[in-house]
Amino acid sequence: MDPAVLIDAAAAITCYRDERFLSTVLHALEVIIETSESILGIEKTWCLPFFHYMSTTFCLLCYEQAWYPKLSGCKAIELFFKKGSWKWKYENLLYYMKTLLFVIADLSSQISGLTISTARIILETILAASYQPNEELIHIQNKALFDIEEELIKQIMSANECVRFQVFQSLKIISAIAQKSIEDIVNPHRRLLTNHLPPSENFGNLPINTLTGLLDGFTFCMTLDPSLLNIDMRNPDHERFFRSLISFCSSGYSLQSLPYYKPYNSYVKQYAAALQALNTFFNIQIGYQETIFRILFEALKSDLPDVSTAAYECMERIAENESCNILSMVLDCVSTLL
Question: The organism sits in which domain of life (predicted)?
Answer without folding.
Answer: Eukaryota
